[in-house]
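## Example record

The block below lists the input lines for one assembly entry, exactly as stored, with component labels intact.
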Amino acid sequence: MLAIEGLDCFYGDVQVLRGLTLSVAPGETLCLTGRNGAGKTTLMKAIMGLVRARAGRIVLDGTEISALPPDRVPKAGVGYVPQGRRLFSELTVRENLEIGLMARGRGKPALEAAIALFPVLAERMGQRSGTLSGGEQQMLAMARALCLEPKLLLLDEPTEGLMPSMIAAIRQSVAALKATGVSVILVEQRVEAVLDAVDRVAFLENGQLRETVSAEAIRADRSLIDRYVGIGH
Ligand SMILES: Nc1ncnc2c1ncn2[C@@H]1O[C@H](COP(=O)(O)OP(=O)(O)OP(=O)(O)O)[C@@H](O)[C@H]1O
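Predicted structure tokens for the full assembly:
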């Protein structure tokens, strides 16, 4: 459903993505990992059209999204939860979700389906989002992106800054996303924390895709993680 072919991206003269080729199947959850500065966030931005491709292309279900202006990419079916979540902290949970609905979506049924995945939000619809825990904020950001009924959802470091118990909740949320049939690219340095919720892991190094390995193969040989991401992650 998503095909990235020979993608080159630059910031000024500095090349950050180099001939990157990667595909994601319908309903697949892919973990994208690599060291700091490998180019993970840049790839998310390139898919969203926020960083332009200098060579190569990105195709979603037959539409060349890398040729679209950035505001058309969400309408083509890509949802994005950036690093840091970008919620409106003064607004309530309900108001944040309604902003998600304004951009596209079927309205109430989309909102109800999104909340059904995150029951904790249903209990907190009137609460200001800035007062939610970090994990709850991440769930709200995911639910808001789902209100657009994307075919592909990009999650950039959803476990960043969270306590272990909340990381487990995010892992469960990612597993729940799978049941909706949406394809997911999850940027994550802590591969172990999400391994049980993903199908494949793509290792990015210095702007190039080193290898793509099934979660099953990593469970059988965890040293693969250290080889590509380094000890300590
Ligand atoms: N706006 C920018 N202008 C210039 N260089 C940038 C810009 N954003 C990122 N870079 C550089 O591009 C490279 C890739 O950055 P990117 O944020 O994609 O990496 P990352 O793998 O997401 O890293 P991290 O895990 O630290 O978030 C880095 O060397 C970074 O310094």
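The longest strand covers residues 14-24. Strands lie at 2-11, 14-24, 29-33, 55-60, 63-64, 78-81, 152-156, 183-187, 200-205, 208-214.
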